[in-house]
Amino acid sequence: MTELEKGPKGRRRGRGARERILSASQQLFREQGINPTGMDQLCAVAQVSKRTAYQHFTGKDELVAEYLRRFDPSVLSGVFDRTDLTPRERLLAAFDVPATTPLCPYIGAAVELHDPEHPASQYARDYKKAVAARLADTAREAGAADPEQLGEQLALLIDGAAARTRVLNADAFPTAAAIAAVLIDNAIPATADDDRRREIPAAGR
């Protein structure tokens, strides 16, 4: 085996190289941002040569797009696919976000890239639309009179809370959850089986 078939420290260029590159991108892009992260550093962390990296990705732009595409393809399945919660409770569960959660990678990428035509920007738009759509579907299931409007309102609250938490270094999600509860209760007619007494998620969940 020649040196060109090995990455840094002699690690073999195996079938796992692509996954190591993506894993390194998830770590570095979230910890230090997309723009400050160069291919040299990505290759060093992934333990692959640059030649190997470019065999899997044509360039950094393609890698960034793939990083976002694979980040959460299920669109918050841990919230929306729960069967132990009522639709209203699932809407509120979307705000059950630990304060230590990093800034949404789709927001971060859109802010950094400054290019609406970048493939990653398109993935970010598609994902954010998908979140609003799932909120709207859940609102419709809960009986909201205008589920699309409620879905957009809740999506805006989630993104606003995420950005404010990051900027202020203080958990904004409990306040957002309280606002969401008011919006939800105003949008969804009260029914006999509504659990209005369900406690709104609190900080430190």
Automatic annotation (TrEMBL):
Location of the HTH tetR-type domain: 15-75
Organism domain of life: Bacteria
Keyword Transcription regulation assigned: yes
Family matches, as InterPro entries: Homeodomain-like_sf, HTH_TetR, Tet_transcr_reg_TetR-rel_C_sf
SUPFAM superfamilies per record: Homeodomain-like, Tetracyclin repressor-like, C-terminal domain
DNA-binding region positions on the chain: 38-57
The entry's keywords: DNA-binding, Transcription, Transcription regulation
The name this protein goes by in its record: Helix-turn-helix domain-containing protein
